[in-house]
Structure to design on (529 residues):
């Protein structure tokens, strides 16, 4: 075990860097550019019970130090993910992978997770109760502690794999939701998903995004994400995957100090396909600068006083 | 804009590059107009802050860009006399395409459409290549008065086009052969990861940046 290794819910990661769901496809697009086995793991594109095209275009809007997306969980549905995407993923990635799952009912989540539970390469299930871009599902489960807990309990009943719950920042008290998920049996918390945002085109006076609003991500949201990771870390005793605007090795160290065991990287993959490779490679030097021998010793180490 | 660097990833006409600019989060996707050795020619119109910043960059500025993006045009079905139709900012990718088709010994008809004579560019460059060039302007201030569909040659074996959506719709109806259209969409990554630029086609969902930007006439599903 190297100095970058961490243990996420019983599975050893060579390093804490995890490309976030929806920014890394099923890995193979990036495997054309570099050997993605150097990553800790990655969270593949959000999977739903049925195939989805997602929202109309434009789905993307640029912002200062970030972007808004309103893709809307485009994916081929769990059956095709298992029959077509995972075999391709397996050819280029040889570690346990994180399966990101979304749904529109508690039954949807349980159904999709039960199928993915049978896939040997799936190491963790990351249950997304926080997608801001779909109606009648997604985020509505993540903004209410009881609804989030129901999803967690239903998923835990169909799998023995570690279940991480990906939480929405678009709530008043994220710690309360994290606690409810922990009480329902969640093995870890992943946060944050994107912040609900909007842009208006001054020429047309219409929203830039066809779906009016979308999820804001990128370096601009890092302080918000870090704050929420810190709050959740102080509220629960299960591991946290921290993410939101991470773009530098220093951001990774801050996230871990705030309480993250591993770190998700999202939007940065989209503006630099080499972003996660660079982070893995640049971490040791950043650790040296701040006299950090082993990354795992850093987790939750923020000093308050 | 002329850029010098490693152009080895640029393969087909109709591909694009994605340019990183200081002070802007997302890259700017720009179609490849020409590639010769290690020199890449890009022609863009200043439409927003990003392109305005590009036009203000001094000579010698170093840029980071992703190259070899998109599928590009497939030359195989072109036939003896392909027709190339470029509208406005859709003209540049037609240039490398024309070069490639001419190099294969084909006769290349080019129709360039603009709003007015002031906007006309690259007409002479296409003529210098040896193409049969017709210009159309909406106000009639140059060439044929009207749209590109008013200036189509009487005979062609296949067509390739890039330009605005209204032109595409008109061409789709007016053309008598099969052809290929290069689409534009707001992109996130430009290399297939984010699904930001997906569209529905007769042959399934496609990402404009990765499975496109070039789609065949037979697979286009108009959104109306």
């Amino acid at each position: 075990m190297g100095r970058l290794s961490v243990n996420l819910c019983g599975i050893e990661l060579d390093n804490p860097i995890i490309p976030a769901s929806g920014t890394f496809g099923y890995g193979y697009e990036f495997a054309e550019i570099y050997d993605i086995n150097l990553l800790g793991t990655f969270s593949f594109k959000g999977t739903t019970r049925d195939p989805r095209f997602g929202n109309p275009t434009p789905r993307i809007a640029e912002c200062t130090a970030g972007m808004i997306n309103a893709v809307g969980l485009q994916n081929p549905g769990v059956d095709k993910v298992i029959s077509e995407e995972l075999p391709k993923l397996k050819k280029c990635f040889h570690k346990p992978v994180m399966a990101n799952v979304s749904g529109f009912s508690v039954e949807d989540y349980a159904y999709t997770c039960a199928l993915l539970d049978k896939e040997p390469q799936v190491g963790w299930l990351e249950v997304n109760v926080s997608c801001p871009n779909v109606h009648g599902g997604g985020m509505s489960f993540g903004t209410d502690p009881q609804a989030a807990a129901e999803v967690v309990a239903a998923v835990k009943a169909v799998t023995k794999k570690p279940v991480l719950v990906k939480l929405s920042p678009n709530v008043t008290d994220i710690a309360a939701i994290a606690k409810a998920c922990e009480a329902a049996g969640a093995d870890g918390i992943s946060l944050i998903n994107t912040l609900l945002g909007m842009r208006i085109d001054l020429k047309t006076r219409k929203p830039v995004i066809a779906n009016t609003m979308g999820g804001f991500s990128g370096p601009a949201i890092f302080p918000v994400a870090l704050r929420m990771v810190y709050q959740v870390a102080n509220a629960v005793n299960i591991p946290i995957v921290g993410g939101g605007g991470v773009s530098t090795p220093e951001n990774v160290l801050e996230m871990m100090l705030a309480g993250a065991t591993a770190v998700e990287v999202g939007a940065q993959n989209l503006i630099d396909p080499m972003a996660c490779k660079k982070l893995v490679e640049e971490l040791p030097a950043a650790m040296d600068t701040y006299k950090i021998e082993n990354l795992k010793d850093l987790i939750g180490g923020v000093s308050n006083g | 804009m002329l850029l010098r660097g490693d152009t080895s990833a640029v393969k087909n006409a109709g591909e694009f590059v994605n340019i990183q600019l200081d002070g802007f989060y997302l890259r700017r996707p720009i179609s490849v107009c020409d590639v010769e050795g290690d020199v890449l020619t890009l022609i863009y119109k200043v439409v927003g802050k990003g392109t305005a910043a590009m036009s203000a960059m001094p000579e010698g500025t170093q840029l980071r860009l992703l190259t070899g993006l998109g599928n590009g045009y497939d030359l195989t079905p072109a036939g003896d006399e392909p027709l190339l139709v470029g509208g406005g900012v859709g003209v540049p990718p037609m240039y490398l395409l024309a070069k490639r088709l001419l190099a294969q010994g084909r006769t290349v008809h080019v129709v360039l459409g603009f709003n007015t004579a002031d906007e006309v560019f690259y007409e002479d460059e296409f003529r210098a290549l040896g193409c049969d060039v017709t210009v159309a302007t909406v106000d009639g201030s140059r060439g044929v008065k009207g749209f590109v569909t008013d200036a189509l040659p009487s005979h062609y074996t296949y067509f390739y086009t890039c330009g605005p959506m209204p032109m595409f719709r008109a061409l789709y109806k007016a053309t008598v052969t099969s052809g290929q259209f290069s689409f534009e969409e707001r992109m996130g990554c430009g290399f297939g990861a984010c699904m930001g630029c997906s569209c529905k086609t007769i042959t399934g969902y496609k990402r404009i940046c990765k499975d496109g930007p070039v789609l065949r006439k037979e697979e286009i599903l108009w959104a109306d």
Q: What stands out?
A: Residues 78-92 of chain A form the longest helix (15 residues). Chain A is about 30% helix and 20% strand.
